[in-house]
Amino acid sequence: MDKNIKKHNVYISEEEKTLNWEEIQTSFKKTFGNEIYNSWLQKISLIKEFNDYLILGVPTRFFRDWIVSRYLDKILEQVKSFKLSLNRIEFKIIEENKQNSEYIKIDQLNKVTEIKDSLLNYNRLNTNLNFDNFIEGKSNDIALSYSKKVCEHISRYNPLYICGGVGLGKTHLLNAIGLELQNENNVMYISAERFMYHFIKSIKKNDMVNFKDFFRKSSVFIIDDIQFISGKESLQEEFFHTFNSLIDKGSQIIISADRDPLKLDRVQERIKSRLAGGLVVSIDTPDVELKKKIVKKKIEEIQNQFKENINLNDEVINFIANESKTNIRELIGVLNRVVAFGRVHNKDLTINDCKNILKDIFNQIRVITVDKIQNVVSNYFNIGLSEMLSQRRSRPLARPRQVAMYLAKKLTTRSLPEIGRRFANRDHTTVIHAVKTITRLSEQDDEMKKNINQIKSILLEQ
Ligand code: ADP
Ligand code: MG
């Protein structure tokens, strides 16, 4: 145990290296299949091996974003089967023309290895996520404007709580705030998941004093994805005290979550009311205008970065913006794929090309089943799966049930009778009724529309 702790996050010596990258690549090929392997995974190189994490090299930022959003979990799982102590992977971008030579940005790497204190190691802001490249639209203008105001007047809006579904820009905004404030403040940025990791580690090491000091000395405390504390009682306790002591000394707190503070599930009431006690702003799903702007901005970035000309006509840009439904992360992923395809085939793309590329992507990564829909929906509405499928007709059960049937019809290829059977042998007319009801509600009722969009984005992410 002791030995492990000492080694934690320290760069390990040659003799201790255990990974054979070629062997891992071979296993990637088997797991992911030739196509994904050839387009993506093959290009990943191993830069450095640490006791509990790896630094892998990738050719571009877009490449990294794509891999992280699509394959990271599986990659981690796969490499873990070769190295049990692994719990994290980091990516470094290696400039393409230098990738094959010995040259690696040594300076950057040294910075990582020199940070012996694992707490510091996670407090890194991503300089690519800043205010300059955050595009404003109707769905995010309020969140953006208050994020900027917080930077001007610390602790006026305290805490600032930013909520919204996955891939809509919460982490981007938190990073932007951190970058803006870091020169003049002691900024701590951490995800709730990491916060827990350190919390547990400190308990194990009997080092809570250090833990408390470390987090309580910040003057700006930014915590991402707070919904993660759901159901974790002792973590909530610790968070509550950290929160109070920061507020007492006038530190600014900025929080993100996938939902409203009051809707957080299995979180103590007193925490919810603290979280809701400052300013709550939400980011909604982007409209087509915003998506088009983002696509154009990203194209600009790619052109500048690679000094290449990317010809995507307006029709294609519209198509991409319309096709990716709810999530900006996905939108960027789709664009990357389209650009990569255009590069390989060296041609101006048509809508038909795009359709083929998207079909390919959706087939690979999205198998949405009725089971999955039922699980996600019952979780979302915080009811038991068996209750949702039961014959009870009370509205708190009937609505989620109808939402799940509606989504099963919209997102899977199952027929109405098949869907009915999956819902405890209901008749297909019940499914038709559900589809009609939810279609109507999602047009008339903003809350329902929002619920449906959020559930869809959860389903598309998984
Ligand atoms: P979340 O934390 O809400 O899940 P992220 O902040 O990780 O979402 O955003 C997902 C991706 O979309 C990131 O690459 C981010 O830079 C990009 N993104 C989101 N919103 C915008 C925006 N308004 N302008 C530019 N890029 C955005
Ligand atoms: Mg995030």
Question: Which tags fit this structure?
Answer:
single chain; alpha/beta; GMP Synthetase, Chain A, domain 3; Rossmann fold; Helicase, Ruva Protein, domain 3; 5-stranded parallel sheet; 3-stranded mixed sheet; 56% helix; globular; binds adenosine-5'-diphosphate
Relevant CATH superfamily of the largest domain: P-loop containing nucleotide triphosphate hydrolases
What does the radius of gyration come to?
A: 23 Å
| Beta-strand percent range | 5-15%
Enter the CATH topology name of the largest domain.
Rossmann fold
Count of extended strands? 8
The backbone outline, from C-alpha atoms, is globular
Second CATH tier, the architecture of the largest domain: 3-Layer(aba) Sandwich
For the record, give the distance between the C-alpha atoms at the N and C termini, rounded to a whole number.
34 Å
Domain unit count: 4
Give the helices and strands, then pairings.
Blueprint: H1 2-7, H2 21-32, H3 34-39, E1 45-49, E2 53-58, H4 61-70, H5 72-80, E3 88-93, H6 106-114, H7 118-121, H8 141-152, E4 160-163, H9 170-181, E5 187-191, H10 192-204, H11 208-216, E6 220-224, H12 233-248, E7 252-257, H13 269-275, E8 279-282, H14 288-306, H15 314-323, H16 328-345, H17 351-365, H18 370-380, H19 385-389, H20 395-411, H21 416-422, H22 428-444, H23 446-461
Parallel strand pairs: 2-3, 4-7, 4-8, 5-6, 6-7
Antiparallel strand pairs: 1-2
Helix pairs in contact: 4-16, 8-9, 14-15, 14-16, 16-17, 18-20, 20-22, 21-22, 22-23
Bound molecules: adenosine-5'-diphosphate and magnesium ion.
